[in-house]
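To close the section, here is one more complete example, presented without commentary so you can practise reading it yourself. The ligand is heme C.
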Amino acid sequence: MRRSIALALTLMFVVSLLLVVVVAAQGGSAQRGGQLYDNWFKVVGASPTGNMPLWATQSTNTRSGEDTWRCKECHGWDYKGVDGVYGSGSHKTGFPGVYAARTKSVDDIVAALKGGTNADHDFSADMSDADLTDLATFITTAVVDTDLIIDPATKAVKGNATDGKALYDSTCAACHGADGLAIDFHAGTDEGPEFVGTVANENPWELFNKIRSGQPGEAMPAQLDPSSMTGSWTLDEVSDVLAYAQTLPEERAAATSAPTELPTTGGSELPVLPLGLAIAGLALLGLGLYRRTLLQNS
Ligand code: HEC
Ligand code: HEC
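Output:
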């Protein structure tokens, strides 16, 4: 009896181990795919030259060069292309999104990324099959309807900012500061300063993608990656952090806007706990001395 239970358990263990191996071998990484979607050439270390060939089929978006090769530039941070945020404004190309393609097979999407449906939609010169599979895995498993989280008209986020604060403080604050002002993303450029709060309010879709997939080329944790330093967050948790990030300041107050160097995070905070302990210790000591004097006097 005992032996058969042990045997069954061993079998179950072996089968689940095999399953994990098979799944890991087949599926690409949605998290890495999301970063490739953001800026694939930064992730794979390529430098595409000229404009993406399909760029010439539109004239509304006047950017040129590397920007024209980013998936997000044609298909949008909200994955909806012309049907979403990039349906108007300076990023408008009129190109479709990838949202509808999420029901396709990974193989079909990889084929489309090798020019299978349009010869000019070919990324195989710079990206490997593994890269393209990561992109396709991102599209088929991680692309969601952002309208359920971000109101496309008002940019308001459906999330609980209080829950988001706890997650932000434990996950993001170490690098970006509790107020999100520690890193200016536009430092060293001639553009105005940009912080977590700025991105959260101006382009919550971009922040949504970056919280889940990470920042290309940077050691920023990615919530679609279960092995990242913070593990993976549910969509609700991502929404909560988005909602909280929208409450963060969008610029440094006049007095603190002077530093051009990155301020060191944390160092300026008062050491509350050690100070408290020291004061409590002194108080106890004082009390003890007082009692001794009282006893001696009586
Ligand atoms: C210069 C603009 C541009 C860029 C950059 C671009 N695409 Fe596309 N994409 C298009 C256009 C236009 C289509 C419409 C169908 C076609 O012509 O292939 C399309 C179609 C697609 C489709 C749907 C294919 C199908 O069979 O329905 C997917 C998926 C897709 N792109 C993913 C990506 C990914 C991932 C990247 C980044 C590696 C990317 N695209 C980069 C313009 C672009
Ligand atoms: C380990 C450090 C680290 C952590 C933790 C971290 N980030 Fe970042 N993040 C970075 C770095 C580095 C950059 C790139 C800065 C630059 O390009 O100037 C960045 C970039 C960003 C950007 C700017 C993207 C852009 O290009 O406009 C945003 C927004 C952002 N992070 C938000 C977050 C949020 C929200 C969290 C928590 C979920 C987080 N980060 C956690 C290091 C970190």
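Once you have examined the tokens, check your reading against these statements. The pocket of heme C (ligand 2) is lined by residues 171-172, 174-176, 183, 185, 196, 199, 207, 210-211, 215, 218-221, 241, 245 (CB under 6 Å). The chain has a mean pLDDT of 87.
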